[in-house]
Design goal:
Layout: H1 10-21, H2 27-40, H3 45-83, E1 89-91, E2 94-96, H4 99-138, H5 148-153
Antiparallel strand pairs: 1-2
Helix pairs in contact: 1-2, 1-3, 1-4, 2-3, 3-4
Length: 170
């Protein structure tokens, strides 16, 4: 797409870079990226494309994070709840912990910590990729997310017939 080959102005580079950095603003970053895309979609194809990528990427990251959280609950904690908590068995002889319940508790705890660590690493990787995109935009160099870029291209208005990137004056 020709948007990737344009030489953007300083203001365009700044807005595009900020759109990618908004991943650090949690879900508000998605909303602010939408605002940047909406405001710039008729003014600057470069900013509109980068903001569209940023909003789609950030939205995908948050949806995947939520799905991972629910998957962790379903896979780890629901069977644990079904087996029962590691409470002592009450018998006439007194309280005795069963080895199975202790093992189950330790296993679930280790798996939960592993899932939390994996989620943290995935979040850091997602943020790192967005920061990389932001740096590329600040430098005025082309950047396109692997799977998101082609989808974002559809959100950018086509090139005017004159071949310029700015809309014609009335």
């Amino acid at each position: 797409m020709d948007v990737l080959n344009q030489q953007p102005s300083d203001q365009e580079r700044t807005l595009a870079g900020i759109a990618h950095l908004l991943i650090l603003a949690s879900i508000y970053g998605v909303l602010l990226s939408i605002v940047i895309w909406w405001r710039e979609r008729e003014r600057s194809r470069y900013v509109a494309f980068q903001a569209a990528q940023a909003m789609l990427y950030q939205f995908a990251v948050y949806v995947l994070s939520i799905l991972l959280a629910f998957a962790a609950i379903a896979v780890v904690w629901l069977p644990f709840i079904w087996v029962g908590p590691p409470v002592p068995d009450v018998s006439p002889e007194g309280e005795v912990f069963t080895a199975v319940r202790i093992f189950t508790f330790v296993f679930v705890l280790v798996i939960t910590i592993g899932i939390v660590m994996m989620a943290l690493l995935l979040s850091l990787a997602a943020i790192g990729y967005a920061v990389y995109g932001s740096v590329r935009c600040f430098q005025g160099r082309p950047f396109q997310y692997l799977l998101i870029g082609p989808v974002a291209e559809r959100l950018v208005p086509p090139v005017p017939p004159s071949g310029g990137s700015e809309p014609a004056a009335l």
